[in-house]
Amino acid sequence: MTIKSILRVGDPLLRRPADPVGDPGAPEIRQLIEDMTDSLAEAGGIGLAAPQIGILRRVLIFKVPDLRASTLPEDGPCPLTALINPVLEPVGDLMALGWEGCLSIPGLRGEVPRHLRVRVTATTPEGEPFEMVVAGTRARVLQHEVDHLDGVLYLDRMTDFTRFGFVEEIFEAEAARRQEATT
Ligand code: NI
Q: How far is the CA of 104 from the centre of ligand 1 (A)?
């Protein structure tokens, strides 16, 4: 069990594109995925990309917990999944706004426009091809993690910085707005 520290925004490694993995079954890739899994469990997020622990390889892990999944048919809860050399392609033109956080930008949240639906192609850690159309939370977390592989952070995708801030402040404001709406 190796918990790596997660790089934070400002670290130049988070801004560099990661290199493709030549041999998904290589022992160092298996080790990398184990380290990422341990580090994510410790940090408590829903996704992590290898550059966030300082390894510039195209590997990500993600999961969708029950409470986070949308009701779209191509979404739904999913267990921790590792993808190697993932490539995303938008399916349709629909975009969706949603709140995101990032383990490399702790304590903050921003509202980010993302493609509602994407097709992901990748290789599994077992070396098998992986292809799936995903939507909602699955699509959002994958777009966020693949961005990390290109040195892109969610901040770069934001269009309205009035929708950015510390978790407590944002959700206090949201709760107050909801209260207002119901009274
Ligand atoms: Ni992130």
A: 6
Q: Which CATH number fits domain 12-98+112-159: 3.30.230.10, 3.20.20.70, 3.30.70.360, 3.90.45.10?
A: 3.90.45.10
pTM: 0.95
pLDDT tens track for 131-173 = 999 999 999 999 999 999 999 999 999 999 999 999 999 988 8
CA of 181 to the centre of ligand 1 (A): 32
The residues annotated as belonging to the active site are: 145
Q: C-alpha distances in angstroms, 145 versus 43, 64, 161, 170?
A: 15, 13, 21, 23
pLDDT digits 0-9 by tens, 94-120 = 999 999 999 999 999 999 999 999 999
How far, in Å, from the CA of 149 to the mean position of ligand 1? 10
Contacts of 14 (CB under 8 A, 6+ apart): 7, 8, 51, 52, 104, 148, 151, 153
